[in-house]
């Protein structure tokens, strides 16, 4: 009987253990990339916003003249505000402007966003036309509108001549100047706010609107119960950003300075323009710094109240 023996098996090759890859993990690389993108903007905010705010808070405790002489006066600059009638008048003008401009700009911008949310022929040109005013310098915008509204010789006066309104001075009449300023401001910002709201509308699921339409909801009901709740975060951002811009933004100074310089009869003198006059016309740098800190404090308080009452724009019911 012949027996066969199996050939000796070859030793199995050992699989080398995988070593962890050298270098950073993907999550950490993404975090570093995000910080790298945020760093330039954060550095700019630190240098050009945060640091000047701290310095302004310190200067508010001094009396500073135009020659750089500092005299410590404690809280005297803040005490002067109580009897400053022009300050209270400028605060009243600013408050009137804010409560008029912010809702009108929001409603107009939301309507434009709803208008251009659907694609049709020439939609790109329409969106560009609405956004175009926002990319123009406010100084140029002010000069253009000043040319259009110049008394009796402006283009608008000639257009209104058949209606007997050619003699109306929109920028020279105290009762009309602030309203004219509001209209120009709305025209300037509506394109920017339209694009922000349009981006929010793009995130509203089309399926929800279609389901509501199938259930028999009207256009108004679909807007009220589907679109509006989902648009609350975006709307909150637009309102807060618009409020801050109306109080301290460029249109609160550049536009009014070019158009009326605070006139007529201080009818358009905003608080930012008044601070500018105190600092660079009357050389009251310390008082201007105190005014700035108070305005910032009021703005922070108003923003905090908006966050508290609207839950930061969240649409949940919790």
Automatic annotation (TrEMBL):
<dbReference type="InterPro" id="IPR035906">
    <property type="entry name" value="MetI-like_sf"/>
</dbReference>
<dbReference type="GO" id="GO:0005886">
    <property type="term" value="C:plasma membrane"/>
</dbReference>
<dbReference type="InterPro" id="IPR051393">
    <property type="entry name" value="ABC_transporter_permease"/>
</dbReference>
<feature type="transmembrane region" description="Helical">
    <location>
        <begin position="234"/>
        <end position="253"/>
    </location>
</feature>
<protein>
    <submittedName>
        <fullName>Sugar ABC transporter permease</fullName>
    </submittedName>
</protein>
<dbReference type="GO" id="GO:0055085">
    <property type="term" value="P:transmembrane transport"/>
</dbReference>
<feature type="region of interest" description="Disordered">
    <location>
        <begin position="1"/>
        <end position="23"/>
    </location>
</feature>
<feature type="domain" description="ABC transmembrane type-1">
    <location>
        <begin position="87"/>
        <end position="306"/>
    </location>
</feature>
<keyword id="KW-0813">Transport</keyword>
<comment type="similarity">
    <text>Belongs to the binding-protein-dependent transport system permease family.</text>
</comment>
<dbReference type="InterPro" id="IPR000515">
    <property type="entry name" value="MetI-like"/>
</dbReference>
<feature type="transmembrane region" description="Helical">
    <location>
        <begin position="32"/>
        <end position="62"/>
    </location>
</feature>
<dbReference type="Pfam" id="PF00528">
    <property type="entry name" value="BPD_transp_1"/>
</dbReference>
<feature type="transmembrane region" description="Helical">
    <location>
        <begin position="168"/>
        <end position="192"/>
    </location>
</feature>
<feature type="transmembrane region" description="Helical">
    <location>
        <begin position="128"/>
        <end position="148"/>
    </location>
</feature>
<feature type="transmembrane region" description="Helical">
    <location>
        <begin position="287"/>
        <end position="309"/>
    </location>
</feature>
<keyword id="KW-1133">Transmembrane helix</keyword>
<keyword id="KW-0472">Membrane</keyword>
<feature type="transmembrane region" description="Helical">
    <location>
        <begin position="95"/>
        <end position="116"/>
    </location>
</feature>
<keyword id="KW-1003">Cell membrane</keyword>
<keyword id="KW-0812">Transmembrane</keyword>
């Amino acid at each position: 009987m012949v027996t066969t023996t199996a050939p000796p098996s070859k030793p199995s090759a050992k699989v080398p253990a995988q070593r962890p890859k050298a270098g950073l993990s993907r999550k950490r690389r993404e975090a570093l990339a995000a910080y790298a993108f945020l760093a330039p903007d954060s550095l700019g905010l630190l240098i050009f916003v945060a640091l000047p705010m701290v310095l302004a808070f310190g200067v508010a405790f001094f009396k500073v003249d135009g020659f750089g002489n500092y005299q410590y006066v404690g809280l005297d600059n803040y005490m002067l505000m109580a009897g400053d009638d022009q300050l209270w008048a400028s605060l009243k003008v600013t408050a009137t402007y804010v409560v008029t401009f912010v809702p009108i700009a929001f409603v107009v911008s939301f309507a434009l966003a709803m208008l251009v949310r659907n694609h049709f022929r020439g939609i790109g040109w329409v969106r560009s036309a609405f956004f175009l005013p926002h990319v123009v310098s406010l100084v140029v915008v002010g000069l253009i509108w000043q040319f259009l509204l110049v008394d009796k010789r402006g283009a608008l006066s000639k257009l209104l001549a058949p209606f007997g309104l050619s003699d109306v001075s929109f920028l020279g009449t105290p009762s009309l100047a602030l309203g004219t300023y509001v209209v120009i401001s709305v025209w300037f910002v509506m394109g920017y706010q339209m694009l922000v709201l349009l981006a929010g509308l793009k995130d509203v699921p089309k399926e929800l609107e279609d389901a509501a339409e199938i259930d028999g909801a009207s256009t108004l009901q679909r807007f009220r119960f589907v679109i509006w709740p989902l648009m609350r975060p975006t709307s909150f951002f637009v309102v807060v950003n618009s409020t801050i811009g109306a109080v301290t933004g460029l249109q609160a100074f550049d536009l009014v300075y070019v158009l009326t310089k605070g006139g007529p009869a201080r009818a358009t003198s905003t608080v930012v323009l008044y601070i500018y006059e105190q600092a660079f016309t009357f050389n009251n740098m310390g008082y201007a710094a105190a005014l700035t800190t108070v305005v910032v404090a009021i703005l922070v308080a108003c923003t905090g109240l908006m966050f508290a009452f609207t839950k930061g724009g969240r649409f949940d019911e919790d």
